[in-house]
Specification:
Blueprint: H1 3-22, H2 36-61, H3 65-98
Main location: secreted
Family: Belongs to the apolipoprotein C2 family.
Subcellular location: Secreted
Length: 101
């Protein structure tokens, strides 16, 4: 990383630190609001839940048993082939490292 980047990052963090310290002034008539981190977390959680619900609805809407069965079969065949080729590759690496005896 460049020196300019680190300097800019330090300045941004310094400004944000002063902003956070200045935001902690007590307010008289308003109830305390939740922390910014809590608000961000709740917002991201709600976005995630809505995206998950939309994906689930889309999956249920377009679910086809024949396609699901084909995908499961394709997955099982491809994992079997990968385990075979991984075994062959491992044997080749070990024979190269061990050398001919």
């Amino acid at each position: 990383m460049g020196t300019r980047f680190l300097l800019a990052l330090c300045l941004v963090l310094l400004v944000l630190g002063f902003e956070v310290q200045g935001a902690q002034l007590p307010q008289q008539d308003e109830p305390p609001s939740p922390a910014l981190l809590t608000q961000v977390q709740e917002s991201l959680s709600s976005y995630w839940e809505s995206a998950k619900a939309a994906a689930q609805k889309l999956y249920e809407k377009t679910y086809l048993p024949a396609v699901d069965e084909k995908l499961r079969d394709l997955y099982s065949k491809s994992t079997a082939a990968m385990s075979t080729y991984t075994g062959i590759f491992t044997d080749q690496v070990l024979s190269v490292l061990k050398g001919e005896e």
